[in-house]
Write a structure and sequence with these properties.
The chain has 202 residues and is an alpha+beta fold. The chain has two domains: 2-73, no CATH class; 84-195, no CATH class. It is 27% helix and 28% strand. The protein has six helices and ten strands, in the order ββαααββαβαββαβββ. The chain has helices at residues 19-25, 32-38, 41-52, 92-98, 111-119, 149-160, and strands at 2-8, 15-17, 54-60, 66-69, 106-110, 125-130, 139-145, 168-174, 180-186, 193-195. The chain is globular and about 50 Å long.
């Protein structure tokens, strides 16, 4: 038996949800046991808490395990001499797998076009990839929570600089039925198309 507690932020009430009800809010959480076995429950739950703007607690009554996530928890560290707090410095392949993004229908466009899209969002997440220190491939180096004014301003500043030194931007928010609306922007490709995005293979 799994208990799920949902509390909108700022907390003024809490609701106990079934797994099915939670999945209607974020479809990635439709199989909590599978996420737990894969070792990705904590990061997906935190991602979901940010997108929902809600505190989430998942308790496993059989063994007492508990997972907690709160909105903006990864943005508490404001030491801007280093990248914002990240769930991990993952490759694009790892990011797609760990955050449940693989296979999502997405709009693929140039990063400059993506800027106007996310500028209209009230909430959502933007991930930035780059190649720090001459790394052979892009890794996750930036995470912007659009519900946070500082993150939003920093993303605007990056946009003013053409998003350099980033190589890719991934942006997503929760849509109808808890499914992700996802966009990916390549920096300075000049390509704009809509397709079922072929996420990096895992």
């Amino acid at each position: 038996m799994t208990d799920i507690l949902y509390a909108p932020h700022p907390p003024h009430l809490s609701i106990t949800l079934t797994e099915a009800a939670l999945a209607r809010l974020d479809a990635r959480l439709s199989d909590l046991d599978a996420l737990r076995r894969a070792g990705t429950l904590s990061v997906v739950l935190q991602d979901s808490a940010d997108l929902l703007g809600a505190h989430l607690i998942v308790r496993d009554d059989t063994n007492g395990e508990e997972w907690r996530a709160s909105p903006l928890a990864l943005d508490d560290d404001r030491d801007r001499d280093r990248p914002v707090a990240l769930p991990g410095r993952w490759t694009r392949e790892e990011t797609a797998r760990r955050l449940g993004l693989a296979g999502a229908r997405a709009t693929d466009m140039d990063a400059s076009a993506l800027r106007s899209v996310v500028g209209a969002w009230r909430s959502g997440l933007v991930l930035g990839f780059s190649r720090p220190g001459g790394a052979p491939g892009s890794v996750l180096t930036h995470r912007f929570d659009l519900a946070d004014v500082v993150d939003r301003i920093e993303l605007e500043f990056l946009g003013d600089e053409g998003y350099r030194p980033l190589t890719d931007l991934w942006a997503y928010r929760l849509g109808e039925g808890g499914h992700l609306d996802t966009w990916r922007g390549a920096v300075s490709t000049g390509v704009e198309r809509v397709e079922t995005l072929r996420w990096p293979s895992v």
